[in-house]
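Chapter review: from sequence to fold.
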Amino acid sequence: MRRDFHHVRAITPGDLRSIMRMVDTAWRVHIRVPPVELGAKIKVMPGFLAEDQTGLRGFIVMEPQRPHVALIIAAGLRDSWSVRPYLDLLLPEIEEAVQLEGLPAVAHIGNVAWLVDDLQRRGFEIREWIVAFERHGSDAPPAVPRPALIRSAHYSDMPELLALDGLAFNHIWRKSAGNFNEALARADSFAVAELDGQIVGYEWFERYHKHAHLTRLAVHPAYQGRGIGAQLLHTAITDALASGANMITLNTQENNYRSRALYERFGFVFSQQRMPVLWKELG
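The token string follows.
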């Protein structure tokens, strides 16, 4: 279709190079996944781009989180383009595609002002807040009981990990099989907790030089309150320090007071960083 000399169309695998170039060079870019994973998702996830005679102007990629919502996982636009016409062109296409997928809502997680402000003007509302915690220095974590066996995760654990993840998290926070495959291949530490031969929890973190980020910490709901989360957190911190990290970060929901208390017990402090979960129900 043609709109004001801009051509809007669905993203194809052939667009990957130009999209990744924009991710690397444009200043208004938001991605919720590592660039290497974004490349794989662009090939299979619904998305749209706008282009003109000189090439790519902007793009949006979404990831269906069935059966509840589609999550915007990547968005970007050329430095010379304004946000308002960018969203005027691409957001209706995304919303229509979400409805065709049979999903009732579209969501965005992040605090980039250039995107958040204009999404709110288009009917997105803040549903909850995500807060960041930090732990600095090389002090060992406090000693904890060891109710479970902690071991490295293996690819053969995938079915149990996916099932546990589905029980431990709300749909918008669940990880896909692709996420787990990527983590098993690339995470600096990926450990599971076993009790009576069953996986009852897991953690993984990724390290960037001296900075480690605890991407995931999960305990099966039926086994919470037994100290397994503390044992996994102890493992993650110990492994991160042994790998050379002197700062560890993590994110959690602002109203998850139980988890926040655990993190503070292990030396994490609220960094004063918050990001909204924006949500729009579609007619």
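Two observations follow directly from the output. The chain has a mean pLDDT of 92. Residues 68 and 80 are 35 Å apart (CA to CA).
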